[in-house]
């Protein structure tokens, strides 16, 4: 086996360590904002590549029409109503069978989302009589919704219902219309005719809703303060005051991409964050792109954040002129490669390297078990945990958007 193989092995083993991105989080704000609030975790899903079942769970359940459906028809959620397509994942509502209507629901595998920026690229259903929803959920009084009803569209424009379910809405039979947590907002487009991005930014002080990166509405009362999960669903119960219908034919809405940037409430994940980012390195905080079709946020450094915006237990790096660890790693890696290339030249002239290779000196240094085990164990530690305790962590995020619709 040639020395060139070991050089190549060493170089590519170093690449994940040298060029890792976003270890210290994701910034919502532009670089010229006075403060750069950021989130520590992300869930980035491209549904055009299939439904990642380790990240999203299709639901099976039934709600009878005569108990909790809140309408004349019951609801039957089925895994078979969640369908992969090249355009993305489809959530189907079926024409009624007897007293029930088939529906679809997806729930994130992460239950530890505690404040964040959540975005979905969707094309809504084009048949009257169903409700399509993109929302955060902890329980029936800790919920943030963007809900779409085809019956509210006109020829050129659409509508979105922006909702915070709260104890006040619960007291009114889960009707938020007469609470501060409701806004029926017009859209300058039909949500069923083309792809559009929908987003809400949730912080301790407010929830800001967006359509195609334009600010729609801000709510500041009854803000949820408990971690939970993301959900997508498409349903009908025949309620004339909400979903309408049910539809006479099967109908679907499609989701192509979903990006979530958030703080984790899980103590082990928070510890993993502090391990990979013991002191916040600005070169490892990525600005969240407004183009949701990007599969990864760009590794563009942001400005130095206010200390008050850092996650608990983290510190600022202090002197920004200090070389970053990324730069030092690149320099070390380049120096090692140059040194090994020089050694190859010496070996070519003196023919003294074969005994060394036979003794596997380089494999122990380059590609042995210690190096590979170290990389995989760190990756596993960051991913293996599930939700647990929580604590509030992030103050207000400055809103970004072109204009109010």
TrEMBL record:
Residues 26-266 form the GH16 domain. InterPro entries: Beta-glucanase-like, ConA-like_dom_sf. One of its GO terms (biological process) is carbohydrate metabolic process. The chain crosses the membrane at residues 330-349. Residues 295-326, 377-405 are annotated as: Disordered. One of its GO terms (molecular function) is hydrolase activity, hydrolyzing O-glycosyl compounds. Residues 1-20 form the signal peptide. Residues 295-309 have a biased composition (Polar residues). Coiled coil: none annotated. PANTHER family: GH16 DOMAIN-CONTAINING PROTEIN. This is Concanavalin A-like lectin/glucanase. It comes from Trichodelitschia bisporula.
